[in-house]
Amino acid sequence: MLGLKIVLSILAGGIVLGLIAAGVTLLITARIEARYPPAGPFVTVTGGRIATIQAGPNPSRRGTVVLLHGASANAAEPMADLGRSLADAGFRVIALDRPGFGWSDRPGGAAMATPAAQADAVAEALVALGIGPAIILGHSWSGALATALALNHPDRVASLVLVSPVAMPLPDPGPIPWYYRLALKPPVAWLLSRTVATPVGLYYLDRAGQSVFRPQDAPPSYLEASRAALVLRPSTMLANVQDLLSLPEALNVQSRRYGEIAVPTTIITGDRDAIVPAARHARPLAGLIPGSRLVVLPGIGHMVHVVATRSIVEAVEQIAEPAVAP
Questions:
Q1: Dihedral through CA 135, CA 114, CA 144, CA 29, nearest 10?
Q2: 98 φ, ψ (degrees, to nearest 5)
Q3: Can you point out the beta strands (E) in the chain?
Q4: CB neighbour list of residue 54: distance below 8 Å, 6 or more residues apart
Q5: How confident is the model at residue 190 (pLDDT cuts 50, 70, 90)?
Q6: What band does 197 get if pLDDT is binned at 50, 70 and 90?
Q7: b/e 155-192 (16+ beta carbons within 10 angstroms → b)
Q8: CA-to-CA distance for 30 and 138, rounded, in angstroms?
Q9: Beta partners for 265?
Q10: What pLDDT is stored for residue 245 in this prediction?
Q11: What's CA 175's distance to the chain center, in Å?
């Protein structure tokens, strides 16, 4: 009887702590959304809306550049430095929140986790906006998204600029500990995302931001300019996990088709990128896309578009010469 009372007391304590964490999560989420409201117009797609941030002349004689952000980010992240620089150079620039990120809806929930599914939504948004063929620029996770767009919706793509791209099959991580497997189960992931994940993520946000820049330092204004805290909302954290989990199998299938990409392609990476190593992704990808150009920047880590913005702008200007976009 005493043992049962102890178990019930622990259970009751856990429920109370969970309710407190859920309340804190709701408060943090409300404050994040109030601080970072939508920064541009929405476009309607099947099942929801895609949020955009736009800059530059419309129409532009230099063409349109579509910016696709990486994991844990949103449209403001590539727009903050790179997008504004491209707009200043005379391009029309449209950055999209990927489905489930920033202020975009997530039609279909977990079914939207693959690059191919997101490419369908992005293509539909570009059609609705009257954009295409355009220069598609994808960073990190969106290297897979940009190549999926070129493979499955070539009429929307004039050329590709792939920055620190995730594109090739990922190595087998080996046996996953039972507690990680449990945490990634949909019901548990849903529960964690609505209780402890947001407060813990907020605590580590600055350190996480610094870590993706190594060996460079993150600019002091990076977290604010990129509206990075938007990823801490429960629905976005869950979408982020789904996207990362879907990627290995999606890349196994998609990478077999890279030889079909027929648009001018520039791949830019840093030789110190420890997050998406060039030897594992950018270099073999360049060997698979016919006629692609590989640029490896010495001493640069993963955040090429922030720490070497001018190099990306020059690459876009060079590839834009034959590109046609509204």
A1: 80
A2: -60, 155
A3: 42-45, 48-55, 64-68, 92-96, 134-139, 157-163, 265-270, 293-297
A4: 40, 41, 92, 93, 94, 95
A5: low
A6: confident
A7: ebbbbbbbbbbbbbbeeeeeeeeeeeeeeeeeeebebb
A8: 30
A9: 160
A10: 87
A11: 26
Amino acid making up residue 101? F
Residue 199: predicted pLDDT? 80
Quickly count: other Cβ atoms within 10 Å of residue 33's Cβ.
Answer: 14
Q: Which helix (H) or strand (E) holds 257?
A: none
**Cβ-contact 115, 254 below 8 angstroms:** yes
Interatomic CA distance for residues 251 and 114, integer angstroms: 9
177: left (phi over 0), alpha (psi -120 to 50) or beta: beta
Tokens of residue 69, six digits: 């952000």
73 closest CA partner among 167, 123, 139:
139
Contact 237, 44 (CB under 8 A): no
- pLDDT of 326 over the 80 cut: no
Is the pLDDT at 26 greater than 90? The verdict is no
Count of beta carbons in the 10 Å neighbourhood of residue 109: 15
Helix (H, G, I), strand (E, B) or coil at 51: strand
Residue type, 54: Q
Q: Specify the amino acid at residue 273.
A: D
Task: Based on DSSP, count helices (H) and strands (E) in the chain, helices before strands.
Answer: 13, 8
| H-run or E-run covering 266 | strand 265-270
pLDDT attached to residue 203 = 83
> CB neighbours (10 Å) of residue 215?
13
DSSP 8-class letter at 170: P
Token pair for 293: 């150009």
